[in-house]
Amino acid sequence: MNSQFSLPVFALALLVVLLLAGCAGGVHATTWTTLTLHDGILYVADLEQVRALDAETGEEIWAFPSPPDLRQYGPFYTVTLLNNELLLVTSYEGAGGLFARPRGVLRALSLNGGRLAWLQPFIAGGEFIAPGAAGDGIFVIGNSDGNVYGLRIDDGTLLWQYPTRSRVWATPLIISDTAYIASLDHHLYALDLQTGALRWQFRAGGAMADCPLLLNDTLYIGSFDHNLYALRPADGTEVWRFTSTNWFWGTPAGGDGRLYAADVDGNVYALDAATGQEIWRSRVQATVRLGPALSRDGKRLLIASENGTLFGLDTADGFILWQQAGQGQLGSMAIGGERVYVTRINAPQRVQAFYVENGRPVWSYPAQQQ
């Protein structure tokens, strides 16, 4: 299926699985949960609540709302940290009727205690699938209603919106005065951060569903047309492309002149970032949606799979050093120091920490019963 207006088959299948599967507290997930790490604290969208967890121990510091109130506030899916002061969180609310499309709700919480920081939430016409990004007092986020929104961080006031021709599932990348954001309509858009005006657009042969990576003044982004693209950020000119056997979904990782990417078949590639030439390839026996994560020392590449298994690869040659299986699907992943943190959906342990070096578990939330 190659229509730019159609929901990709693989993506639809994933969302149907999530929709039909029960998860903690009886909440039914329709997309993935995310987390972010700051100053030793993990901020997690955990469906029923947004939680602040001690990154060292996994102990809960605060939760919003307390107690849970799904009728008014949830379920929660994404978190975005802003200015070391605010946490922007998304949830959805039903619009009424069995087949009514849920509306996305965006709220601001204070990092200190999780108190509401905006007088009113911002409401969009569809679900927020991915976190947003901020720059120069403006918060930019895409929505499943096909729009990209630019909001004033101080109070959530809408400054501008840019319509695409399909759902926007990607987090934007903000560099200086430009917001780069991909859409399922096959385009990567470069928008003026202050006004939302289009600066340029790049068209791929398939949908793009994640954030581009900026490395050495080049943008890298994967597409459902099986290609990984290198583009000039000034005008979107293609520098090179690398073709795999299936879709590239997640954001690539990069460092020391190398680019690391995984397609949904579980093929993992190390490429020369300047030329796109393949250095090595490896394979994990799982479907991969998330982009890889690179350890602080550049020696480990972590791959999170849809079947719940986390893999640790040697960046020298792609050898699989360890794998850690778990229940449910992996929703998001973040590396902090010697640890990697993940969220899980449809699993009793919804947040977990592992050592990057060997995959050994550190803690789980909620804590596993002995």
What's the helix and strand layout?
Layout: H1 9-20, E1 35-38, E2 41-46, E3 49-54, E4 60-64, E5 76-82, E6 86-93, E7 103-110, E8 122-124, E9 133-135, E10 138-142, E11 147-152, E12 158-163, E13 173-175, E14 178-182, E15 187-192, E16 198-203, E17 213-215, E18 218-222, E19 227-231, E20 238-243, E21 253-255, E22 258-262, E23 267-272, E24 278-283, E25 293-294, E26 300-304, E27 310-314, E28 320-324, E29 329-336, E30 339-345, E31 351-355, E32 361-365
Antiparallel strand pairs: 1-2, 2-3, 3-4, 5-6, 6-7, 7-8, 9-10, 10-11, 11-12, 13-14, 14-15, 15-16, 17-18, 18-19, 19-20, 21-22, 22-23, 23-24, 25-26, 26-27, 27-28, 29-30, 30-31, 31-32
Short description:
It contains 1 helix and 32 strands.
